[in-house]
Amino acid sequence: MSALIKTSEEIVAMRRAGRAAAQLLSWLIPQIRTGMTTEDIDILARDYTNDVLHAQSAPLNYHGFPKHICTSVNAVVCHGIPDATVLKDGDIVNIDVTPKVDGFHGDTSAMVCIGTVSESARRLVDVAYDALWRGICSVRPGARLGDIGYAIQSYVEAQGFSVVRDYCGHGIGRGFHEEPQVLHYGTRGTGMVLEPGMIFTIEPMINAGDYHTQVGSDHWTVTTVDGSLSAQWEHTLLVTDTGCEVLTLRSSERMRC
Question: 10 Å Cβ neighbour count for 82?
Fold first, then answer.
């Protein structure tokens, strides 16, 4: 496994793609409400990507994926296909967007709580977000991939939740999915050494119950085996000379490290 070290020109292009992804998600989140279908959200994302960003929706037709974004509701862990599912009060949904700008990918996702959600669901969503940032804050030159996984897993399990093993973060650039694979569990001091110029996603999937998953008959939708809720957040980041830069940081967010 080897990671692609991006050139200065590629880093500039990835910053543009990251800003586009952050802009799309920032615009989309306030539009989401009770009574909408996930297909409605997909259409909004499609139109904004095409008409405002003048970009492409990278998920569309990627290995046959039929929509522009992923919408993963409640027990859906990831890769949920937008459809006629109506969002109802108390649902939690992950919105995963990847606009492609001038050949480069910006990849990010966020959880949206629909109406009034239960205290347990809100806590899961919050722990998943904190876990994302614990992973991000472990990124610096000389650190190892295992440090990211350890930071996430040790925190999540201490909160009584589990970390999905079957899906992980990934390198990204001209390719939607590049090396390295970024596991969200692991052991400190193991794995690839991080170097400036690496760009990858961190996107921990956190389950309220067991970490095992299953893939549905559509060959895309991943759900928890035990039917428990799942939450996920994602950012694309660049390893810098002194730490990391979050390329998909939204204006509503702040760096936590």
Answer: 21
